[in-house]
Amino acid sequence: MKNENKSLTGLRGLLALSIVLYHIYGSSVLEGYIPEQTNSIFLLNYAGPISVNLFFVISGYLITGSLVSKGSIWEFAKNRFLRIYPVFLTIHLMIFAVGPFVGYKWMTGISVRDYIIHFFSNALMLPGIFPLPIAQIVAWSLSYELAFYLIAASVWATARSCSLPRIAKYAVYALLVTLCVVLVYYRKDMLFFAVGVIFYISRNSLSRSWDRSPGFYFSGIIYLSGMFWSYYALDTPIIIALPLAFLLFIGIVQESGLLAQLLRSQVMHYLGRISFSLYMWHTMVMFGLKILAPKLSAMIGAPTFWVYAVLSLSLSLIVSDLSYRIIERWFTDRIRKTKKAVSPDKRTALNEA
Q: At what angle do helices 44-69 and 6-31 cross, to 10 degrees?
């Protein structure tokens, strides 16, 4: 892939894998497969929140760059839609098709009215930002992502507009700042998007001043460990986690240091490519295994936890690989090619309509 930052791709893989392990551990405790751990495994309790927040930093960094490079809001929106919705809608339709019949979460005995309301509220990714019942456990973060996309695109469109008077631009900016303050007040983790945005804006000066001396070789691992410590030891970890996330990204974007080197491995690069599908599908795989794992454990005489953990990880990887190849690549490529196949005259007519 041209100009690909393999350390950044590998980081996506590490974060997605960490979230899977976080959910395996957490659900195993909830289901009674294992007791809550008091050793170092206990740190898995923080792997999920930290990983999601670092995904927000990645989005802040990449989405800012994407907006700057795109020629229009339409182009940006189309790319975001094709990146997220094919996988998301596949799972969404699957859940709402079978959920009421298999007792999936809050869908047991759901009324027709509530079914319709929650079908569309979830399709629009409202649960997360808004306190609504959520069908896909992990989709709350997509609600945050969508809110960030809308705000970032609004800032970009306002700044680029030549028709808006200056006073109108100031009014829009004031409205957006107010919206950001409200969002951060209720959803403090959205501050991690700002870390990515600030990093993108300052990337050139950071590149010139970044010290690649041997003393910084372990800095990425130190900063990541510091984030885990802040979540373990502090009541308000975000105060420490935000600057540590910024410092962590210096080595990742510069592809410098031991952590960046490890993230460039083939395994991490592969996990990075399927990371979105892995993030979206693993809880669906685990839902079925919560029913099957105890029965399989009794049949083969193995501890339920290990049956559940091994099958959750392996089947999640298999399903995610298929999702990446079929939905993220094959299906979306067909859509893009279909749009490109529209003739210039027809495209002009569509644009004028």
A: 140
- The terminus-to-terminus CA distance of the chain in angstroms comes to 36
Q: Which of these, 222, 224, 233, lies nearest to 54 by C-alpha position? A: 224
The verdict on residue 12 lying in a domain is yes
Q: List phi, psi (to 5°) of 32.
A: 85, 15
When divided into structural domains, the chain yields a total of 1
| Within-domain flag for 1 | no
In a domain, 160, yes or no: yes
Q: Name residue 124's amino acid.
A: L
Closest CA to 8 of 54, 76, 77, 47: 54
* Residue 145, H or E segment: helix 140-160
- Whether the Cβ atoms of residue 278 and residue 271 lie closer than 8 Å to each other: yes
Using CA atoms, how far apart are residues 230 and 1, in angstroms rounded to an integer?
A: 36
**Cα-Cα-Cα-Cα dihedral of 8, 9, 15, 17, to 10°?**
-150
Please give the model's pTM, rounded to 2 decimal places.
0.92
Convert the pLDDT of each residue in 173-210 to its tens digit: 999 999 999 999 999 999 999 999 999 999 888 776 66
Euclidean distance between CA atoms 327 and 325, whole angstroms: 6
24 pLDDT band, cuts 50/70/90, is: very high
Cβ count within 10 A of residue 263: 27
What residues make up the domain containing 50?
6-352
Identify the DSSP state of 130. Answer: B
Q: How confident is the model at residue 81 (pLDDT cuts 50, 70, 90)?
A: very high
Indicate if the alpha-carbon torsion angle 296, 298, 300, 302 is positive or negative: positive
Tens digits of residue pLDDT in 258-276 = 999 999 999 999 999 999 9
Q: How far apart are CA 312 and CA 20, in angstroms?
A: 8
Please answer whether residues 138 and 26 qualify as being in contact, where contact means their C-beta atoms are separated by less than 8 angstroms: no
CA dist., res. 216 & res. 344, Å (int) = 53
